[in-house]
Each structure stands twice: as C-alpha cells, then as structure tokens.
Protein: Acetolactate synthase
Organism: Apiotrichum porosum
Amino acid sequence: MLGRPSRSLARALPARPSASSALLSTAVVQKRFRSTDRKSSEKAKLHTSSSTQQLPPAFVEYSPHRGKGMTVEGKQRVREHVRRIQSSASTNSPAAAVRPAPAAHFQQPPNQNTAASPYAAEANPNIRDGYDHSFVGLSGGQIFHEMMLRHDVKQVFGYPGGAILPVFDAIHNSPHFDFVLPRHEQGAGHMAEGYARVTGKPGVVLVTSGPGATNVITPMQDALSDGIPMVVFCGQVATSLVGSDAFQEADVVGISRSCTKWNVMVKDIAELPRRINEAFKIATSGRPGPVLVDLPKDVTAAILRTPIPAKAVTPGATPGLPQNPLHPTVGNKQPGDASLITKAADMINRAKRPIIYAGNGVMADPEGPELLKKLADIGGIPVTTTLQGLGAFDERDEKSLHMIGMHGAAYANYAIQEADVVIALGARFDDRVTGKVDTFAPAARQAALEGTGGIIHFEIQAKNVNKIIEAQLPVLGDVVASLAELVPQIKNVDRSAWLNRCKANKEKYPFTFSPSQEGQRLKPQEVMKELNAQAEVIGKEKFILSTGVGQHQASIRGDGTAAVMWACQYWRHAAPRSFVSSGGLGTMGFGVPSGIGAKVGAPEKYVINIDGDASFSMTAMELQTANQYSIGLKTLLLNNEFQGMVEQWQDLFYEERYSHTRMHNPDFQQLAEAMGTKAIKCTTMEELPAKMKEFLEYPNDRPVLLECMVSSEHVYPMVPAGKALHEQILHPLLRNKTA
Ligand SMILES: Cc1ncc(C[n+]2csc(CCOP(=O)(O)OP(=O)(O)O)c2C)c(N)n1
Ligand SMILES: [Mg+2]
C-alpha cells in the first residue's frame, strides 16, 4: 500500500499528462495489472485497448489495488513528477519553490490542557491511569451539573419541559449556580446575551425540546450576528424516537445549523462531558458566538457505568476538537503576522489623515480599550466606533468622533470619507457603516493607488476580510494581541491640522433637534440628554445601557426599515461592555431581557433599558422575571405610540402611508405595576428632571419603569440606502452648511 505521503503525491498528478508521460503510464499500468488478480488484468486490458493518450493517470489514484502493483518505475514516475513540480516552481512559476513561513495562526502549538485544575491526577484521587472515575454512577443530568461547576458557570437562564427534566432534576437546588426562569425562552436567550456582553463570560441557556428550543433561535442568530458567546443546551426526545415525529420533537440540530457556530446531538452519555467542553471552547474562541448541544432524554437519564478519559472531563481540554488555525483558542491569542503589523505601523506613521474605526473586537479583552486609547493618543488619531464598538473609546475624549454609519455622527461620516488611512479594528464593515460600498473611504482608496495609504483591517475571522471592503493590509489574528504589537511601533506625529478639521466638523454638524414647545410632547432627545446629564453626576462608569430596536436605539435594517438611536446619539459612552444592543440582527424585544441579563451579570451597576413602545411590548412580560428575582432593571420607555423607525421610512419613502405602524398600547403603568414594577410617567419638560431623578434613585434592586410620552421625530443624520456616507441627510437645522 502507498503510505500517506505517497498517496498525496499521487493526488498531485496532473489530470492530462504529456504524450511521453502517458506512454510511461501505460507501461506502468500494464505491468501493474500483470502482477495482480484476473479481474484486474481484464480491467487493464480494457484500458490498454484504448488509445494510450487517453489513459488517465488518475487511474493510479482510483484503482482499488493502488499500491499493490506499485513498481519501481511507478515510484520513480511519482518522484519525477514531484521534482518537475518543484523545478517548475523555482523557474517558470511565479510561486516560490520554498514557500514563505506561514503566519502565526498556522503555527499554533498543539492543544494543551493548561486549565488550572483541581481535577488533575495529583489533586483528584478519582483520576487513575488517565481515566476519571468520579462520573461513574452519575446520571447524564448530574454530569451536566458537574460540568457546569468545572466550567465555573455561575448563572443559567432557562425553562423546563419534559425532554429536559432529567437535567432540571439534577440541578434542583444547585449550590453551584443561580438560575433565572424567564417568561419565554426567547427571554432566556437574550438574558444570556446581556449577561455575556457585560461579563465577557459565555451565557448559558437550558431549555426543553421542540418549542423550547425553537424559541431560542432568534437569540442564537442575534448572538451569531454580534459575536456573543452563548452555550445553549436543549432537551431532545429519546434517541430511539429521533426522526419519528415524536411529541415535541424538532430537528433542532438542523434548524439551528445556520444560526450557531457549531451544534451537536449527544448520542451517548460517555460523550457528554467532552461535548460540553467542546461547546464552551467553541463559543468562546476566535470570534465568539452561540453553540447548541442537543440532549436526548435517554442520554441525560442514563447512568454512566464506565470511567471516561480524564481529558474529556477537564475544561480547556478538547480531545477530538480539531485545532482550527483561523480560530485561535482562548488563552492562546495569536497576533497577526509580525511583518504585516510592521507594515501597518509604517502606513499609519506616514499617514496625514488617519482614522480609527473600532468595533466590538476591541473589547474582546480588557486590555483592548487601553491599547486603543494609546494608539489614538500617541498617533494623534481620531476614533469612530460601530454600534457594537460603543464604549471601546471614551466618547468624551476630544478625538472621539462617536458612532459612524447610517445614523451615526455626520462628522464621523465626513472624516472617514476624507481619511487617507482607515484603521479598522475588530469591525466587519457592516453595510450600515459603509453606505454604498464602492463610495466608502474614497480618499483612502486613492491613497492606496498612490502607495501613500489605504485600508488596514485587523480582524480575527478570515471570512470578514475582504468580504465587503477590500483591505490593502489585512492583519488576520487576535485584534488585541495585534494591537499590543502595533502600539509600540507608532510614532508621535503632529496631526493637529487633521484633528482640528475633525473638531471643526464636530462643531459644525452636531446632533441637533428643535426643543419641545410649551404644551408639546417631550422630544426623545430631551429625555436622553436629561438621562445623560444626571448619569454624569452619578458617574458614567456605573451605568450600563440596553436597548430595544427602533428610533430609540439606532440602526437600519436590510429590508429598508430604519431604527435610529437616540440612545447612541445623546448618551456619551464612557466604558467598555456598557452598551447592550442588538446590532446585526436588530431584534425588537431585546431590551428588557438583555437588560435583565446585564443586571444579573453586573448587579452593582445601574442598568437602564432604553426602550420603544413597540419593542417593549414584545417582551414586557419579562418584567415579572425581574420582579420575581428582584433584579433592579430600570426601563426608560420612549413612548411615541408608533413603530417610529418604520414610520420615518413611511414618511420619507412611502408617501406617509402608515401601514400598520401605529401602536394601540395598553396602559403601561398598570401593566408594570401588575408585575411588581414601580411605574412613573412623565409628559412635560418641567417635570422631566424630577421624574428622572426619582427613576434613578429608586432602589437599585427593584425594577422600575419611567414612561416618557414623546413626540414622533425623524432621526438625523441619515444616510439613505444606496448613498455614500457623505451624501447623508442632515438635520433641517444644519442643511445650509456644506462640509
Ligand atoms: C422582531 C422584529 N420585528 C420587526 C422589526 C422591524 N422594526 C424595526 S424597528 C421597528 C419599530 C420599533 O418601534 P418602537 O420599538 O416603538 O421604537 P421607535 O422606533 O418608536 O423608537 C420595527 C417594526 C424588527 N427590527 N424586529
Ligand atoms: Mg415607538
């Protein structure tokens, strides 16, 4: 038999040989088949009877008797072929014979279990000869419980049901973690997202089969879109029933395939610990995201009878999980290629008008925002962020240009169009950021043609590189690790002219609005400004915001509907991990549950959910969850009695035909009170400061609602779909100014 290397050489044979090599092949084939059985020699005859030119050399590859008849000539032929490939590479082909060393990502050390381990052999007498005996005699549910302990899970969000009962039974009164029962599994998913977003730890969800699992699809897609680590465990019918349309059976692995990073059905109790390890590893490594583990009831109800390999039950060890070079693992964060980082530093040092465009990736590590600040301070470089990057850079810093994009700051949009070098950090050039793609950053593209600048993209996920915007310098690797190597190479260059230009635009094109007049409804901007002002007094770093989706939030969705962000425009973000908003998917109903999850993750903080009336209505029942567990979520409801964001589009592009966007709301005051939530209402500007104060000072461990009746406003600036960023529609008050 051919050994492995020889086989791959055989695969490298050309599909159409030259005449001489085909002749050689014939000789080889004839000889080979003489030395094998009769059936084969008949086959050989069949081949030799045809023109020798047509003999496919691939035959060597596909013959079931490959290798048996491999003659000396055959081997020689393969060697010659390889020599030919190599010599052509060094002479005729542009590809180098000796390939350059692969990037750091491709040279990762082998997986090692580095977990500080109370479960290591010395510490754990149950581990003998590499096998862990401590699970013997435990049910699948109990193993789940034990694995949560080993993964240091402190919080689970979930909802029980028949197929997952063995697990719920095993976690009954668990001393290891707290459990929050939402009113709907979607709530559990968004709570886990909010928790993950503020703690940096994966959010854990536990639900039943069928509808329990399908109700978590939206949060999983949401987490996938925004790169949030989440581990979902769901029940499943017994393995013997899978595929039989059993009660509450759903093909959850199939359904969730496209909205998870990875999913698996555990078919044997002995696999359970290993699968749980894999789930945590995949959810938290590379670009974080959701994973799903499907747990058939017979697996969680079964009792484990034999010990299992110790590595399979040790967090951090993932035997069988192939090392994906594009997804560096946690604790093994690899920067991008050093030579590319040096090139990036050179490009930045030479730039006249550089700009940093920072996304969520910067906050993957607590060091990220510090490094970003150093990069901006040393280089004298202005910073704009994506929606998910809000908080990565202190927006009160002079160099902050705030959020970019469709409803971002006008001055950020102008600046990125004028910049000669765009430094994208852990951001993926969402279409809401770029506007019309081929008009994005024209000055940087021109500088790239002239060799004086361009777009540098620091990114962890290969698929995001050159997906929407071509980067002249893509640096694939952990963004924070790359930044750590980049910053020391950045020179202090005087860029005061460029910074002054950005500053002047900031003054010229501020976020603006016409204040409400006597007897008019409050403007949503006035409410956000009041919140911002009072929060400054208390201390911005003590605040976390969650949002729904709409004008109160800020983004525009692909179907042409718009959501604008009062919360982004009128709140100056100061700290990382302090903004919890559904960016990529734009999920209405996100605000209350994600705010609850955030508050659970950071109970000492003021967690304010900025919500719209329509978004709030989608998941308002979760206020009862906050009531039950005394979770002090503060909901600031901007009630315009409309799906305001959609209304804005109907105004602008559908001739004011308000097709099903007016909201006939319940009495939110009574609704909140019915769920043990203190309710406050504000209708005038005069009472706003006092009501806001009452809202903020309400005990931080009880839920409270401040409902502000606001007018229906358009959100500006706005980049219409299909337009360039600099073609944004400014607020009417700014329209006579030119950039
Ligand atoms: C689940 C879901 N359904 C529909 C939409 C489309 N959509 C985006 S914003 C919006 C209206 C939001 O209204 P509201 O929550 O009151 O916020 P406002 O714009 O009035 O501030 C709609 C229907 C969505 N983003 N998510
Ligand atoms: Mg509304």
Remarks:
- The chain has four domains: 4-91, 106-313, 338-508, 524-716.
- Residues 524-716 form a domain with the Rossmann fold fold (CATH 3.40.50.970).
